[in-house]
Amino acid sequence: MSTPELKAARDGPHVKSVGIIGAGLAGLITAHTLLQDGFADLEILTRDRAVGGVWMEDRVYTGLQVNNLHGEFSFSCFPMSPESRGGRLSGHDLKWYMRKFGEKYLEGKFRFNTEVLNVRRDSSGEGWRVQVRDAVSGLSETLRYARIVLCTGGCSNPRIPDALSPAAAQAAHFHGPVMHSRDFKHHIEELVPSRKSLESVSDDETGQIVVVGGGRSAQDISAYLANRGRKVTMVFRTADAFLATAKPLPKCIRKSRFVSAFSPHSELNTGLERFLHTTWLGSKIVNSFWKHMTEQSFKALKIPADSPLRRAHSPYWSVTKDEGVPDPVRFHAVVNAGKIDLVAPARVERFGTDGQSVVLADGRVLQADAVVLATGYVSSWLSIFDEETREELGLNRHPLSEGAAKCRWDYKSLRNPPSAYFEGEQADALIIRGLVPAKNILRRDFAINGAVITNFNTLTCEVSAHWISSYFLGDQMRIPASVDEAVAQAERNAAWMRRRYPDMLQYLNESYSSSAAFWTWPQWNDDLLADMGLKTRRSGGNCLTWPFKVVRLNEIANLKDERDAKRRSERDLLPRQCV
Ligand SMILES: Cc1cc2nc3c(=O)[nH]c(=O)nc-3n(C[C@H](O)[C@H](O)[C@H](O)COP(=O)(O)OP(=O)(O)OC[C@H]3O[C@@H](n4cnc5c(N)ncnc54)[C@H](O)[C@@H]3O)c2cc1C
Ligand SMILES: NC(=O)c1ccc[n+]([C@@H]2O[C@H](COP(=O)([O-])OP(=O)(O)OC[C@H]3O[C@@H](n4cnc5c(N)ncnc54)[C@H](OP(=O)(O)O)[C@@H]3O)[C@@H](O)[C@H]2O)c1
Q: To which H or E segment does residue 565 belong?
């Protein structure tokens, strides 16, 4: 930390170290970026035994695919194109990528098997105390860092309804295995013995697996099991939204800003977006576009009009996965082939008293010899902060002020939203850009990466990592100048989230939805770049062609140099201004 650029950081708290909690993609790119910026005294803590988080070797099973419309899932310094991997990235590709990235750029920086139990501000008021437990020895200790970056992800802590927990199964004398989808890989042998032994037993002996949930995990796991000869029943209320096409979409649509223009952002920065979202004609075009995409998707995957899979979230209003072109081993095709029974709308309520069934909320009983709970995830944040720290940082749910609740965004394209189905329980975390808790904005010692849902995670996490590094370095940035201003900005964003995603934010947890810019990831990135005073809309083009220009990772490959140059030029200006 000897370069002049780091003066601001050096003038900060008494220790200059950074603790990054989490070794998934957000933790990896944050660590790499901070190291490049001179934060050499840095540690990455993970409770896992290896890098990767969701894409760690213990969690990835055959058949997992990356389902972003853009298709890319790598960082600019170490590209991995889907084209070089047969057109689509698999879970195994990402497992490889995360491991390689760790080896190549972050060797010696990890503390594996280290569960973070508690994070709180040091009693001196400077820096953070992190209480950890070693998963192997069971020993606890307290670590100290000047700064913390929270990268614990939104899909790390399983949501297990009490009445469906392994303990409840035991109490009901349920005779088969019960597991959460997070641990599916560990249980594969139990559910799908080797092919030879599976072939040697009859259907009655292999029994029925009930998969609970309608999200991607439920769909992927159901397809995996059915493709290996198991009888599967999937129980859900609403299935995930998806897009599919009979033929691959051209790059100028799939990899450009085209689709993002059809999704409103909180600020409409181009004439095309203002036309599409604020005029009567534009909103008609937007509605027709999404209606067409939805219908085409059902048609491409041959989903009958009366199929329960038509009970799906809307791609316009929620997180949506790209199914690409039809594939006989993927979920929808396997359902069409009659290999997965669907029970919907329904919810599984408890285990039956006979030890071999589950009972639905409407009283129906389903035979079950094993249960996979693909019931989603809870926040990875709340268990590691005590009430005082949560309050200090503003991570608790927060009722919107009257002023914020009045923000309307009278976009014509946002008429007729879906209903919010757990009224009043929306998480309104007050987090600036999804990166810094509003109440802590002036301290420049705590940030979050990976909590903003976008459709191009690696790109948004990389730009976010630069934003965080600039913020820690004390660079001149467009950020609120006071806590009150920060709270007002965060409240406005929370109000926008309610308006834009009234349905989605209720089934996502706080650590996965501190903000969302699902289709609008290009606009989101532009906001972060503008905060740093850097060039926006980097894919180029003129007023007619820009929506079709392919967004490439190398557009952000030199962000460090750009930030350094800007800092230098601002420093050069200073003395002249003073004279
Ligand atoms: C099966 C699955 C498939 C997915 N597929 C896609 C996809 O195709 N496209 C897409 O965009 N998104 C997908 N996602 C969403 C996925 O969560 C993100 O894409 C991304 O991988 C999240 O990265 P992350 O670094 O934020 O979190 P994670 O990868 O979850 O990493 C979290 C890290 O934090 C650590 N951690 C958490 N709590 C603690 C603690 N208390 N102490 C110590 N360490 C802790 C974990 O050990 C881990 O290292 C998928 C999610 C799942 C579950
Ligand atoms: N290959 C991929 O791209 C992939 C694979 C897996 C996961 N992911 C991503 O990871 C994240 C988490 O996905 P996920 O599928 O694990 O979780 P999820 O999207 O949160 O889905 C959980 C599902 O469980 C249902 N559920 C909960 N309790 C239930 C009950 N008692 N009975 C019936 N249904 C119940 C929920 O229904 P209600 O909404 O009705 O409560 C919901 O459908 C998502 O962002 C997802 O896109 C991606």
A: helix 559-578
Are 528 and 562 contacting, i.e. CB atoms less than 8 angstroms apart?
A: no
Virtual CA dihedral for 198, 182, 520, 548, nearest 10 degrees? -30
pTM attached to this predicted model: 0.94
For residues 213 and 56, what is the distance between their CA atoms, to the nearest angstrom? 23
* Residue 213 tokens, joined: 């949930």
Give the Å distance between the CA of 81 and the centre of ligand 2.
28
The residue nearest atom 8 of ligand 2, judged by CA position, is 216
Cβ contact 75:458 at 8 Å: yes
Ligand 2 binding pocket mutation candidate from 92, 217, 238, 358 (most atoms within 8 A of CB): 217
Residue 56 confidence (pLDDT): 97
| Per-residue pLDDT at 507 | 64
Helices (H) and strands (E) in the chain, counts: 19, 24
* Cα atoms found within 13 Å of the Cα of residue 274, Cβ hemisphere only: 5
Buried b (16+ CB within 10 A) or exposed e, 384-412: bbeeebbebbbbeebebeeebeebebebb
pLDDT for 1: 42
24 lines ligand 1 (CB under 6 A): yes
In whole angstroms, give the CA distance from residue 394 to residue 388: 10
Please classify residue 350 by burial: count the beta carbons closer than 10 Å to its beta carbon, then call 0-12 exposed, 13-18 middle and 19+ buried: middle
How much is the mean pLDDT over the chain? 91
Name residues of the chain where pLDDT drops below 50: 1-14, 423, 579
Q: Which atom of ligand 1 is nearest to the CA of 54?
A: 29
Closest CA to 314 of 200, 190, 430, 413: 413
